[in-house]
Amino acid sequence: MTHFDHERIPERIVHARGFAAHGEFQVYQSMKEFTKADFLQDPSKTTPVFVRFSTVAGSKGSGGELARDARGFSTKFYTDEGNYDLVGNNIPVFFIQDAIKFPDLVHALKPEPHNEMPQAASAHDTFWDFVANNQEAAHMVMWAMSDRAIPRSFRMMEGFGVHTFRFVNHKGESHFVKFHWKPVLGTHSVVWDEAQKINGKDPDFHRRDLWESIQDGDYPEYELGVQIIAEEDEFKFDFDVLDPTKLWPEEDVPVKIVGKMTLNRNVDNVFAETEQVAFHPGHVVPGIDFTNDPLLQGRLFSYTDTQLIRLGGPNFHELPINRPVCPFHNNQRDGYGRQTINQGQVSYHNNSLAQNTPETTPEAQGGYKHYQEKIEGQKIRARSESFKDHFSQATLFWNSMSDAEKEHIIEAFSFELGKVQSRSVQEQIVNMFANVSTDLTKGFAEAIGIEPPAMKDNSVTKSSPALSQENTVHSVATRKVAVIIGDDFDDSNVSSVLEQLNNKGIKTEILSNKLGTVKGNNGLAYEVNHTFLTADSVLFDAVYVVGAAEDKSFYKKAALFVHEAYSHFKPIAATEAGEKLLEVDEMKDSLGVIRGSASTAFASQFIEAIAAHRHWDRQVE
Ligand code: HDE
């Protein structure tokens, strides 16, 4: 009973709701020119990894992984030189420039303290008040209001190290580097109405997706990309390369793809692994170092500090999930929960009784040595002038969006500010974002009944096509299709269509009005996976309506399902019997709606429609 009484530990102060998996990393070619990091040298070497994905704002048990939020994307590489942690997000920039503001940001974002509402949401007064009064947040807010904040799955989102780090090679030369994870399946999102419904229908939607794809052998894959800037080029850009509210446009500084990570094993125990894993941007290996990014500097303090309370003392690095896989020696001793039974008399340095061991490995033998940066001038606590432009890249982001993506951003602002009670905060935000785009502000100011301010001049016309999800990889592999079938369905060619889909790696699941077996008019039978009660259109990427014999209740439920999928811009295929569900004429002739008798051509068109992900043209109709 005593053990049971103590089974809970404090949840993470941010990123509490997370899910993780094991995997491995391999570099494509040696990165020797830039870094001496051992795990980035040899393409034949496999480095084990553990990756935890998370939402930021919600508590551990918060309902719904589809909250509008950034996603954490933390990777622990268990290298032969010790653990390297890349503790990133799925958004490449951050809300603030100075770490000391982090507690304020999080206080404003979390549920309000007097009534603890709302859970896992930024749509409330304190968050938007913080934004209006800390305008460096403008750029990340644009990302948070975009489709990036409602990913289709953990397997379909990018990851970013956010900060500028340093690569150091064997010659001691340093380059600035930004890290990227590019999902092999492309970067895809759901729509906001869908996200809210998924949160109710399956609050575990993202973790289930990750868990099931690993179980099915559809291992999530991400390529590691690096952007590199030579130290001497530090001042050649119209932004400060150490400012964490800025990205390096990929068109100006190309992302070099250098390796691949594959997640191939689910955890055995969520508490022991996912909950107890302790990430830290300060866990570096020789060849990777820090810069003077002031946000990074603050993180280097915070992550050890937080584990001390969360994991109950200084020995958290000895927990199985945190232990390095290489040999290590130090003079650390004792403390709560000590696991190692150290031998011998000596636990100090320098010593003569143990031949001066253990000692820090000298650099020549692979030991860590920080890059020595030459610095001149006053060290003061102030924000650099070069950190003062808060709007140019917010506009760059806006300019880079497709029409549909812009529409979604306007809707997101309209939703979030529509939930804000304070008229003054709403007005401040309208004024602030007029600095980003007048089209944007006009769009949402109208929705919340505020007069947009007179045009302000924003001269940024540049765009970065890489930022639009329209330009991502479009793959059909592992997409989920709901196949709607009722009894006495016309079974000619159904199995060949399903086979064609399955051959492309598309998952098909049979939906009907009751569990059991559905039978076609020529004896074809399918085991039903879900009913209209246990599943919902928001849990699928596309719908294939095979239909049924005349059955009113079947068609009533199926019609709701199909209409909702249509309203979320999803591909729909319907055979003749299923066509009666597409009653609205506009639906019949929309792009992404395939009609006809089941045939090879019909299946190919459907596959093409699935590859498009969503059919945004419906929005314009
Ligand atoms: Fe974190 N962050 N953070 N953060 N962060 C934590 O550490 C912090 C920041 C990120 O899956 C905490 O172990 C400060 C940026 C991820 O276990 C804490 C600042 C980025 C995770 C903390 C930042 C992140 C955390 C809470 C401002 C993207 C989850 C629990 C300087 C690059 C890690 C913990 C996991 C977690 C502090 C800003 C990503 C309190 C002070 C920027 C993915 O230490």
Description:
- The protein is an alpha/beta fold.
- It has three domains: 2-144 and 154-318, Catalase core domain (Catalase HpII,  Chain A, domain 1), CATH 2.40.180.10; 389-470, Hemocyanin, N-terminal domain (Up-down Bundle); 474-620, Class I glutamine amidotransferase (GATase) domain (Rossmann fold, 3-Layer(aba) Sandwich), CATH 3.40.50.880.
- Helix content is 26%, strand content 17%.
- It has 17 helices and 18 strands.
- Strands 1, 2, 3, 4, 5, 6, 7, 8, 9 and 10 form a ten-stranded antiparallel sheet that branches.
- The protein is globular, with a radius of gyration of 27 Å.
- The termini are far apart.
- Bound molecules: CIS-heme D hydroxychlorin gamma-spirolactone 17R, 18S (HDE).
- GO terms for molecular function: catalase activity; heme binding; metal ion binding.
Key phrases:
621 residues; alpha/beta; Catalase HpII,  Chain A, domain 1; Hemocyanin, N-terminal domain; Rossmann fold; 3 domains; 6-stranded parallel β-sheet; 18 strands; binds CIS-heme D hydroxychlorin gamma-spirolactone 17R, 18S; heme binding; Catalase_haem_BS
Q: Would you tell me the overall average pLDDT?
A: 95
Count the DSSP helices.
17
First CA to last CA: what distance? 63 Å
- Portion in helices: 25-40%
Report the CATH architecture of the largest domain.
Beta Barrel
Pfam families: Catalase (PF00199), Catalase-rel (PF06628), Catalase_C (PF18011)
Cofactor: heme
EC number: 1.11.1.6
Enzyme class: oxidoreductase
